[in-house]
Amino acid sequence: MQIALSVKDLTKQFGDFTAVKDLTYDVEDGKFFSILGPSGCGKTTLLRMIAGFYKPTTGSIEIQGKDMLGIEPNKRPVNLVFQHLALFPMMNVFENIAFGLKRRGEKGPGVEKKVNDMLERVGLPDSGPKKISQLSGGQKQRIAIARCLVLEPTVLLLDEPLGALDAKLREHMKVELKKLQVKVGTTFVYITHDQSEAMVMSDYVAVMNKGSFEQLDTPQNLYSNPTSSFVAQFVGENNKFNVALQKDESGKFFAKTKNGGLYTLSDSFKLQDSESFDMFVRPEAIIINPANPKPEFNVINADVKAILFDGGNSRLLVTPEKTDEEIIVSLPQNRQFDYIKAKDSIKIGWDPEAAVCFNKTKEQIYDDEI
To answer: pTM score, two decimals?
Structure first.
């Protein structure tokens, strides 16, 4: 396993503020690695340290085993794609892609061959003579990436490159970017606040919060096995219940809500009895009107507040009876529950294995109280 990028004990402080705290991780060669987090979590600062625009306060950055300390940005084997692309409007497509090659002294037929090969790889052959103003948003995106890839960087850094695109084009470009990365084989390090982008494209995702990684894992494990309350809330849609834990004589745990609801928890949770926990249940894990549920199933009566129609992603917004809590329930795509209407009373249920629980931090307890 060859390591393209290695970060060890990396910290960046701006005065008294710590933007990045003691990060250590490796990115394998040829992988699509995403850093996912909310605005202000430190992900752009991290990317700028890798690119060489910021000097770390402490720690090291290695690219293919070579220490980058003191190496200028233009001497590092990385290239950075910005959200606003920074294509040169006075140059045509060919000239934009050839710019970096000519800056480092390359001339002649070799430049033309590299540019045309790269246009072919990004799916835009014969586009060299076009003006930048003649390109669509998605085409501009691919040209900006081609301009970086033609320089054959060890690592391509992408700073929210889809943020300026409209929703439909963004969905299309997620697929295109993943296909392109697989095709060219370059290591991509991608930062985003959009969890869908990170989950669709990445081999590995680091979920970042307040300068640290909460969890670094495959998209599948982040979704199915979050290791913190923050990850459970930030990755995918989740129903959150503020609960206290109770334990019966046999040692089995139950989650009790403020409204008196009592839910069975899986035996796999080895938690200490506490007043402060978050329980999460994914909308697709909740079954509508469960038939012949298992004895351990959590089944409750609920009132349908609204139908949230969104094609294959349609959901119900329901309220458990005698509470003011709101729960999102996925509607199966086989349309078997199309008869359900707002104000109907239904039953919903979930397997205890579908729920995850985490201790609240002092900060989370405070946030819930205000």
So the answer is: 0.87
